[in-house]
Specification:
The protein is of the alpha+beta class. It is built from 4 helices and 7 strands. 27% of the residues lie in helices and 26% in strands. Strands 1-2-3-4-5-7-6 form a 7-stranded mixed β-sheet.
Length: 171
């Protein structure tokens, strides 16, 4: 953290947040890893407990989002494809996406989001959290206790991406 104060809070995502979520995804991920707005809407419909936005305290502008849900731990969802349903045989918790605008980074919003995901995973009965690190974010995730879980060097979303995992226990 840079020492700047976190000027917002994580709250449950609502349908009227989806346009902001899509815009943040485009800004943070560029065209390489962004998803269609319908994908975010489906995640919210399928597992609202895992969908949150970071909203500013001074008027509520959305500056980040978090999407997570139960899933099969060794089979990450395909990028920009509908899930259809949360699998009945889900054996892990998947952190699908955490994106923060640059104005929000460095104040603890990312760490607060991870704490939220850890609590959700434990409450849902899962022992670990899996994610796919994109855009060089593996360093951030490694600093949060995630380790590389790529199978045979294969990365789920292509070159420069990494499947990572950590225990759901808090720090």
């Amino acid at each position: 953290m840079t020492g700047k104060a976190m000027a917002g809070r994580w709250r449950p995502m609502r349908a009227d947040d989806l346009a902001a979520v899509a815009a943040i995804s485009d800004a943070v991920h560029g065209m390489a890893y962004t998803e269609r707005p319908a994908i975010y809407a489906e995640r919210l419909a399928l597992y609202p407990a895992g969908c949150h936005v970071f909203a500013r305290d001074d008027g509520g502008a959305v500056e980040g989002y978090l999407i997570s849900h139960p899933w099969r731990r060794d089979d990450p969802p395909t990028l920009d494809r509908p899930l259809g349903a949360i699998p009945a045989d889900a054996d892990g918790y998947y952190l699908h996406d955490l994106a923060l605008l640059s104005s929000t980074r460095g104040a603890g919003a990312g760490r607060a989001a991870l704490a939220l995901v850890l609590r959700q995973a434990v409450a849902a009965g899962f022992d670990d959290i899996t994610l796919t690190a994109v855009g060089g974010a593996d360093g951030f995730w490694a600093a949060q206790g995630f380790v590389y879980a790529d199978r045979d060097g294969a990365s789920p979303y292509g070159p420069g991406t990494h499947l990572m995992r950590r225990t759901a226990a808090m720090w």
